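Hi,

I'm pasting everything inline rather than attaching a file, because the server keeps stripping attachments. The sequence lines come first, and each chain or strand is labelled.
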Amino acid sequence: MLHTVNKSPFEKSTLKSCLAHARDGDAVLLIEDAVYGAMKGTDAAGEIWPRKGRFAFFVLGPDLAARGLDPARLIDGFTVIDYEGFVDLVVEHDTTQSWL
Amino acid sequence: MATDEEPGSGGGVEAKKFLYVNRRAPYGTIYALESLEVVLIGAAFEQDVTLAFFDDGVFQLTKGQDTKALGVKNFSPTYNALGDYEVTKLYVEKESLSERGLTVNDLMAITYEDEDDDWAEKPSIHLVSRSELADIMAEQDVILSF
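And the predicted assembly:
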């Protein structure tokens, strides 16, 4: 399954709930304000890095750039994708769950 | 309306202290842009304006915003125009920055020209603690939250 999350982990508990429900081998894509959750050194990073081995983590590049976030400061293990990559991910997975 | 009751006219009514609270990240929702637009429109009323940035609102001020691939307008340069509208007090909360792994060096250097000091360029951003911000909030007459 592909999970997408679009809200900041500092504002909503959506990312936390998504990661608590996703199963090993699932893909998790952060878009829109959720991209802040992919950055190193934040209070929310603890949601992500302990689970790195279990899920494939992706983050949408255009949303990072819009917010002035440097890809060099991403938590290790994130793959940056563009909109074409987003489409590819959706096509590759039988089901997409958009966590709003 | 009697002209000597107009705010800022010197007709005897003191300017009110307006606080604009910014707690949300830019671009994911429209709140950040709407807040900025209300501040600019409200500047016409010549009140004593303060902007507070905390929680995810601190993200509104990060430098290097590039929205080309998103196809929306990058409105971050507009914060630099606030000084021209005599909005010179931007309070950024320290705790919100550190919770998000940010320092003041990640933010735009927003300045204003002080007409009472030979147009010297001064910083508009002031870092404050959560409790200092609470004190600032307690002094306000009108609070608009975004």
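Chain A touches chain B at residues 6-8, 10-11, 32-33, 36, 39-43, 45, 61-63, 65-70, 73, 82-83 (CB under 8 Å).

If the labels don't parse on your end, tell me and I'll reformat.
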